[in-house]
Design a protein that fits this description.
By secondary structure, the protein is α/β, with parallel strands linked by helices. The protein has 27 helices and 17 strands. The strands form 4 sheets. The protein has a 7-stranded parallel beta sheet, sandwiched between helices. A 6-stranded parallel beta sheet has the order 8-13-12-9-11-10. Strands 14-17 form a two-stranded antiparallel sheet. Helix 18 crosses helix 21 and helix 24 crosses helix 25. It starts with 5 loop residues before the first helix and ends with a helix. 44% of the residues are buried. Bound molecules: adenosine-5'-diphosphate and zinc ion. Zinc ion (ZN) binds next to helix 16 and helix 17.
Length: 595
Amino acid sequence: MSPDSPTTILRSIFGFPRFRGLQEEAVRHVAGGGDALVLMPTGGGKSLCYQVPALCRPGTAIVVSPLIALMDDQVAALRQLGVKAGALHSECDPADARKTLAALAEGRLDLLYVSPERLLGGLIDRLDPAAIALFAIDEAHCVSQWGHDFRPEYRALACLATRFPGVPRIALTATADRRTRADILASLAMPAARAFVASFHRPNLFLAARPKQRPREQLAALLSRHQGASGIVYCGSRARTEQVASRLGADGVQAVVFHAGLARAEKRDALRRFRAGEAVVVVATIAFGMGIDRPDVRFVVHLDMPDSPEAYYQQIGRAGRDGEDAEALLLYGIEDIARARHFLARSQAPESQIPALRARLETMIGLAETGGCRTQALLACFDERLDDPCGHCDNCLAPRPALDATVAAQQLLSAVYRTGQRFGLRHVVAVLRGEASEAVRRHGHDRLALFAIGRERSAEFWHGVGRAMIVEGALVIGEGYGTLALDAGAARPYLRGERAVRIHAAPAPAARLGQGPAGVRSGGDDTLFQRLRAWRKRTADAQNLPPYLIFHDATLQDIAALRPDSLADLAQIRGVGAAKLQRYGTELLAALAAG
Ligand code: ADP
Ligand code: ZN
């Protein structure tokens, strides 16, 4: 094996014992000069697919990326590994940019990250084809106008094909359906590229969904299982992020707000706090995400339902990029369904796209409601079949039997009708359960024949029936106050008991608030692990870097469990490459010996 073989580079520089999945094939293909399209889920390990070939091949690798935060992060991470990396984008300090350009001209850079504007706006004319190792085009879905993140400058990257005919190109993305995939290859003029398409199954993600009943308590229960860890809480509106964050703050949780309404400096500060903190919860709208590659996000909670499986997958994908267990909890309720449907009705999207948007929304609702394996259901949305149930989602761990609710649906629809179609689901359920609340008595609903007809069923059961009728369109939610009305046509077969209704039982009380994986895995010695984390935090702060760039949790856990007592033993631990061994090895051994 030559000293610069991909495996040697992986071990000596990155400190990883082996490639993951399709990485090795993709790396060998590109290192050998071939073009490639790499499709891997977030956290799948795309970066190594171009970083390793960049180091195998002579010359500088040019990495095109649309995200400044991500570029800076990658450069900082590579420098920690002793790799010569730089970035050129609109926010670079001019003196740094000059140094980077000089290093490039003198052939002293292994990797250069650039924005597409910067590359095409002049830099490209300075590149000597003979001195370029490869071009990597990250977030390649930006090239496609079908994609959700179209960047017109990306299309102009096609010129690389003719201007640098001998230089291999590798396009990478985490989101691309078949059509987008074809579009990427055509738009970048890469007809001969080999596609490396990984499974979108993320076995370390624990998926769960619950009806939104007491969201504050449901969130608190999850946070208590993840003490000391960082995570993301997604909300449907800016106002809600502020409200949730201030409540969390009052409960002693370190919460940071992020949404598109923040000023640039506030956003940057929020990002900085998220990256530097050990136990930070970001409460965010969907504006938060692109460019976040903190690997040790342990949970993602949705307090409001996303409007498509694609959005959901992308958001939960931000958890567990380091491959360790992570939890994704979705809380959903009828107000989510109502909001999304009203939004769609008023959508500015072209007429031709509305049916597709509606189908995605309905699929998302189905995903939330399903009593089957959630991982299977989610992968099916991306044309991927998982043969066996995953065994680690909430429904696999605590199966919920299907209950016949045909008669209950009839009763619930009648109750909506008898109460005048002017009340919300909560009120209707109170009537059915025989709860003589003040409002129920004031409207005389305690004198209806239906009053208390369903008292032996739980409120959760009735809410489930109500959601099922809303999903089927038999009940329509009014805008504003969430009042329910019948859709006569859709409701008729249910009112007559002609169409069977089945719902899934509510989760057992023990499972109700989710029993995902424990927060921070305690590998071996927990106090030692905590001491190593404290050492890492000091070391990171001294260099003004996020802690995960020094070592990942998994690496510290292995160190705490194995207690290496020589540099040679320390070098065997995954995540400890040559540069980090040299830089931190002695200090780490001293910290271990002191315990
Ligand atoms: P992506 O860009 O696909 O979202 P990354 O390239 O950021 O994923 O990789 C995700 C995480 O997995 C990173 O923390 C990276 O260090 C780690 N990783 C990638 N490949 C390997 C490997 N072969 N062995 C161990 N860890 C890996
Ligand atoms: Zn499952």
